[in-house]
Amino acid sequence: MKGCGMEHIIGIRIINLDEVDSTNEYAKRIAPSSPEGTVVVAGKQTLGKGRRGRKWASPEGGLWMSVVLKPEVDAADMPKIVFIGALAVVDTLQEFGIRAGIKWPNDVWVDGRKICGILTEGKLGKFVVLGIGLNVNNEIPEELKEMATSMKLILGREVDLGRVLKILLGNLDRWYRSFLKDGSSVISAVKERCFVLGRRVRVVEDGGELIGQAVDIDESGALILETSKGSVRLFYGDVSLRF
Ligand code: BT5
Predict the structure, then answer these.
(1) 83-140 pLDDT, tens per residue?
(2) How far is the CA of 117 from the centre of ligand 1 (A)?
(3) What is the pTM of this model?
(4) Atom of ligand 1 nearest to the CA of 50
(5) What CATH number did the domain enclosing 164 receive?
(6) How far apart are CA 129 and CA 181, in angstroms?
(7) Nearest 5°: phi and psi at 135?
(8) Which domain does 214 fall in, by range?
């Protein structure tokens, strides 16, 4: 397996852009000819995106970045790559005195509001792009004010974006190494930080909606829900705690 030495993998090369359509799109374009660990960071995104073509608000002041990864893993490991991003963001916020939790599968929340979203994309057997959007000093658009927050709103002051990036890259590097050594370490860490577990939740996914008790995240990263009709394994979905 690659990347077991002590050299830094993540951030081996950093591409800084003032503006881009989407750092994920840019990273996918350069991935085939870029070394693993290449990072793309943009001041703002004009077409920032979430899952399933949703929009991701990415004005000036936030941290919008994507990492090119080339692990020798298969599709079944994709959820663990998302978790690497979530774990690294939670640890980074912790360094700024912010207590955050993971909302399965791809969000980081603070005090009931979303502060970060993660989007992985890739070409099977070739590369994975890990995209992270973290609200730092940026304005939150009016329509998201109820459900989103930023480091600035929580701390009541602006934060040095360069410092956030530096700490985040270090944490990503550590979690990525941990994943390469033993994928299950990532799962157990997520379980400790996932505030959805043990709660009654509603999950909206392709096939409709499910209500049940979130009891576990299994080795593949799936959420296990105990419903009135039995136990269900979920690989995708939007979880709400208030419904
Ligand atoms: C996500 O999707 O949460 C993944 C977001 C990934 C963004 C990063 S930024 C760098 C890289 N380049 C990209 O183009 N994307 C990645 P999802 O779980 O589908 O959530 C999307 C929903 O979050 C939207 O429908 C809004 O409700 C909400 N949202 C949009 N912008 C937000 C923001 N800045 N902060 C908090 N919530 C937001």
Answers:
(1) 999 999 999 999 999 999 999 999 999 999 999 999 999 998 999 999 999 999 999 9
(2) 5
(3) 0.97
(4) 2
(5) 3.30.930.10
(6) 20
(7) -75, 115
(8) 200-240
